[in-house]
Amino acid sequence: MKVAIMGYGTIGSGVAEILEVNRDVVAKRCGEPLELKYVLDLRDFEGDPIADKIVHDYKTIVEDPEVAIVVETMGGVEPAYTFVKAMLEAGKHVTTSNKALVADKGAELIEIARNHKVNFLFEASVGGGIPIIRPLTSCLTGDVIEEITGIVNGTTNYMMSKMTKEGLEFDDVLKDAQAKGYAEKDPTADIEGHDACRKIAILTSLVCGRQVDYEDIPTEGISHITATDIKYANKMGRAIKLLATSKKVGDSYVARVAPFLLSPEHPLYNVHDVFNAIFVHGNMLGDGMFYGSGAGKLPTASAVVGDMVAIAKHIDKNIYLEWEKEKLVLADPNEQVNRFFVRSAASEAEIENIFGQVEFVESGLDDEIGFVTEAMKESDYATKAAALGEVRQMIRLV
Amino acid sequence: MKVAIMGYGTIGSGVAEILEVNRDVVAKRCGEPLELKYVLDLRDFEGDPIADKIVHDYKTIVEDPEVAIVVETMGGVEPAYTFVKAMLEAGKHVTTSNKALVADKGAELIEIARNHKVNFLFEASVGGGIPIIRPLTSCLTGDVIEEITGIVNGTTNYMMSKMTKEGLEFDDVLKDAQAKGYAEKDPTADIEGHDACRKIAILTSLVCGRQVDYEDIPTEGISHITATDIKYANKMGRAIKLLATSKKVGDSYVARVAPFLLSPEHPLYNVHDVFNAIFVHGNMLGDGMFYGSGAGKLPTASAVVGDMVAIAKHIDKNIYLEWEKEKLVLADPNEQVNRFFVRSAASEAEIENIFGQVEFVESGLDDEIGFVTEAMKESDYATKAAALGEVRQMIRLV
């Protein structure tokens, strides 16, 4: 069975490596060997073992009837979308690690694949090497999924773990993460939560079967978290982590990406460093969690190759995936009830006057007070915070 | 699509409940409703909503061409094996929660299913509601799985958690577990590790693609663990848990079921009470873990219904599962290298004379000494322990 890789960056070269290193087990599980025929890239990679497979025009792959499976590891919506669409329409199966493409065009590409009796799979787009897409779409199908909450961005989890362990400020930890290759030169997509937002949009789409637009999900990153916040968290016996969460409300879901203060009892409390984990609550299953390497070359490529094996076992059949184009109107996030940790320069009397009963958190600082509110609607919190005026920081509890 | 349930006990009635409660989502995911037509049981269940579906002869189901999917939740090898075989041979798909059946007859039933172009699935047989079988067989297929280590028995994990939390003795905790319905009247299969042994045999068979006989796996339970052991564990900052583990050695695996002393860094350290979790290490994935409700009516039934949906989506196709009848000769467990915690009435001098350098653990007891050995082969430990003579307890470290 001939295969092609589009995009020979970190993940793409990882896929080529696994096809080589694990050649025998992959062949056994597929029923026949997977032979890499083309690698599409703008560059030439002279001296690389795949140099003779490099092509620069995606149409070479589209027009080769021998190629049955195409891997898309280019990233970004375009030209990935154009290329993937062409491959599916030419009757080739596609697997991708590209969350931007899947979040934006998932429903459409699934439909195109279905119409052409091929598969469009994307296990690697969320949680790196952690099996989460297929468990949701082919295991937990007897359940109504009532909650998905994940640590789905390794960069930010590494940074928050390091800030917690070493008491460092955000900027110093970011520099360290960049030096280690965990954060990109332009870290915006990670640290502002955009990456996590696309991932929770994908997961929510899959459990409700409809299109969830990531633009509709309120998203905060971690760039405003300081060493002072970590000190408060330590005092409270909690840990700050960037969560992407989605909860069932009536016939819809309410979703959010934000840093949260987790209690030690929370299943995600012990997920440290670059690891990812996704917590799931089903109405029959109860609690479940999927944990592992959420990023990195080989773990992510492992998920891509797992998709290739699944495709090889379904070469003549479209695996039905329920993700229709019809948009799901998410529930109003301002109606969500949360408890809020707040740092304020106001007095205890002012705080209690506006928020009623609160738990004060000893800060050791002269010029501010930390407190935790009772559970209240987001909209009520916003009103009270505006009335208080002097809010330096707000982080939700979970 | 008509379905039947064989065995209307805890799990079987849970399956019927989910088919009713989650009827709409299940129908949507299957493409059509699943209609329960028969329930096979020796009893009559008068007054139960399924009373009119009760049949006493499995041949009624075998001979009804309308029935496409059969659920086996009877437990035990016979008559489950005879019934399941007949169903598969009659062209009906089967899903089971029965680990005894799968461990004993899995390879054969998979082959029969393949020959009759139907599916024999058993997600519920390991880890209850936790997706683990399908992630191993359809997600982590790009990997060579180098280790699977699980807490796969909720009863014993509950008991060890309770002994740890409350300092109680084994017999008292067993009575409590029986009173709560977590342990059976005859708890042997759980507390002596037989249940965990069958489960690790199943998981090992699936990752190596060959038959692993559970009789070949050295198995110790937890009935010899005492409150004194727990005190030592606390001193060491470790937790005692019953693990079922399988590690790749050359072209084979070495497997064991036994209580282990886990360090806080171990991914399974935080798995408490009746929860189960399975840690997996792949040569490309690195570390992964699957956590959730490992037993109980609805979580286990959730996995069965997930299988039913998978079957409905593959009603015309056998999903290839690699588990051949040819037996895998497991690697010699006596060659395995471990560190051993030992309680002994011997003197420090005698201990050091035989074991060389050890770490002594402060016991607070007058009549014995606790110590941890260096890493050594099981066979070497056995020789030294025999020479020492006075061994009251041995628990491996991990």
From TrEMBL, chains A, B:
EC category name: oxidoreductase
InterPro entries assigned to the protein according to its UniProt record, in alphabetical order: Asp/hSer_DH_NAD-bd (IPR005106), HDH (IPR016204), HDH_cat (IPR001342), HDH_CS (IPR019811), NAD(P)-bd_dom_sf (IPR036291)
Record has Magnesium as a keyword: no
Claim: NADP is one of the keywords in the record: yes
SUPFAM superfamilies in UniProt: Glyceraldehyde-3-phosphate dehydrogenase-like, C-terminal domain, NAD(P)-binding Rossmann-fold domains
Pathway where this protein functions: Amino-acid biosynthesis; L-methionine biosynthesis via de novo pathway; L-homoserine from L-aspartate: step 3/3; Amino-acid biosynthesis; L-threonine biosynthesis; L-threonine from L-aspartate: step 3/5
One Pfam family recorded for the sequence: NAD_binding_3
Domain called Aspartate/homoserine dehydrogenase NAD-binding: residue spans: 7-123
Domain of life: Bacteria
Catalyzed chemical reaction(s): L-homoserine + NADP(+) = L-aspartate 4-semialdehyde + NADPH + H(+)
EC number assigned by the record: 1.1.1.3
Residues annotated as domain Homoserine dehydrogenase catalytic: 131-309
Keywords: Amino-acid biosynthesis, Methionine biosynthesis, NADP, Oxidoreductase, Threonine biosynthesis
PROSITE patterns: HOMOSER_DHGENASE (PS01042)
Record NCBIfam families: PRK06349.1 (NF004976)
Annotated PANTHER family: HOMOSERINE DEHYDROGENASE
Family membership: Belongs to the homoserine dehydrogenase family.
UniProt name for this protein: Homoserine dehydrogenase
Organism: Roseburia lenta
Organismal lineage: Bacteria, Bacillati, Bacillota, Clostridia, Lachnospirales
